[in-house]
Amino acid sequence: MSVSLNCAASPLLIAAAMATIPFGVLAQQPANPNPPAPPAGQPTNMPAPGSGAPEGSPGMPQGSTGQQNQSPAPAGDSPRLLTIDLASPDSVMQIAPGTYQLRLINQKPQVAYRVRTKFVSTAIDIPLSMPMPRVAPSDCEEKQDEIRTSLASAMCEAEVATIARTARAELELAGCSTDESEKFQPLLEALTQSELPNPPPAFELGDSFEVSVGRDAFVSSATAASIGCAKETLTPAGSQSRVETRELGTWTFEVGKSKAQWLTYYGFNFAESGDELYFAETNSGTDPTTYTIARSFDRGGDSFTPSIYFTRLPADTKFSAGRFFTGWRTAEASGGLTAGLGFDLDNPTAFLGYGVAWGYNVMLTVGTVMHKEKRLRGQYAVGDIVAESLSADQLHESTYESQAYIGIAFRFGSSPFESGGSNPPQ
Fold it and tell me: What CA–CA distance (Å, rounded) separates 54 from 72?
């Protein structure tokens, strides 16, 4: 937010007008990256940047050197800038006549600054005019003034809403024409509405946006809170009251309604191999040589499998005990039942478990995997004596068994285990 000051040169001080102007949060006011040049024929006593003007030169703070305060005048009607250096208080600058805009520099980020200004005018008063008969204001004009006065004396936003809502009906009762009522509407909106300079980020389906608003303290002529303003806190101040600072509330905007969706993850699962291995042990001292089927020493070990996982992400972020297994989500995490398949089609595996994802892109899952494990063929038993040395393929067969697994998976835009081809749904 900025304010424009119009200064005109005159040798006489005729009148002084003082105004107190509150500013909003000025920390977001961007500086003009390309200061305009002074208009043709416009006299100025500002030194050029970097000219090394001596102390006390016009446009420089008294008692300082080398710092220019005023931006050059623009080629059109745009105002010049009055730079307020918060790091150098109590400075006095000489400026040329014209229209200016205030700019603060060296602000502390994320801090609200409230600026009060005092304007002393030296403009010569307009010439006297012949007295004219006073025309009494119409009933419509009186009602418009009454509405403006009511808005100024309102104690809270609820009263403002009531006044704005009934303004058109009151104007019609006062005899205002349709054209007069329509012309008053923009004035009413200018008093009761404003737009913030910085827009929010772009929204996507399912997003939510919260806005919290607080209000500063102000002075009211009322001595007690009205029914509609019962939440206000009043502090007596002579014949008036101070309405204290208050947080008005939070407004939440939900962008449409998101739909439940399936997410695809790629990773690895780890499980015990579960294989039972056997071999044909040579019997010494036999002729011809014979062999005995024996169990291999179990050294344990785990197997890991590249896998693809699927989990269902619910539409909303509400959490309940019933949704713990079927699926839940928050702003930073999600969880629910997870199913998956192994990438090795020669030895297919299937997974069913529970997964918890952080930031929707990294998931830890545990559950049960069905995979192939080696077992001794049915025609053999431990201790059987055979006449030939049987190979591993002759001794073993594969069968599906279940094992507990733990897996870690990542959400990529495409499969990291293969190149080319179509991508699975994301």
Answer: 19
Torsion of CA 68, 74, 78, 80, to 10 degrees: 10
Asked whether 202 and 127 are in contact (CB, 8 A), the reply is: no
User: What residues of the chain score a pLDDT lower than 70?
Assistant: 1-80, 82, 85-102, 104, 106-137, 205-206, 257-258, 300-301, 318-322, 417-426
* Measured CA distances, 137 to 141, 147, 148, 163, 179 (Å): 6, 15, 15, 22, 17
**b/e 242-251 (16+ beta carbons within 10 angstroms → b):** ebeeeeeeee
| Residue labelled with tokens 């205002």 | 176
C-alpha 365/C-alpha 339 separation (Å) is 10
Q: Domain map of the chain by residue range?
A: 1-126, 139-192, 210-253, 261-410
CA-CA distance, 381 to 27, in Å (whole number)?
84
How many Å apart are CA 118 and CA 332, to the nearest integer? 51
Strand pairing report for 98-105 and 80-85: parallel
Question: Residue 251 has what pLDDT?
Answer: 84
The identity of residue 190, as a single letter, is A
Q: What is the pLDDT of residues 178-208, one digit of tens each?
A: 999 999 999 988 888 887 777 778 877 667 7
Nearest to 339 by CA among 365, 302, 300, 310: 310
Over residues 265-293, the pLDDT tens digits come to 999 989 888 888 889 888 888 888 899 89
Q: What is the pLDDT of residue 117?
A: 63
**Element (DSSP H or E) covering residue 158:** helix 157-173
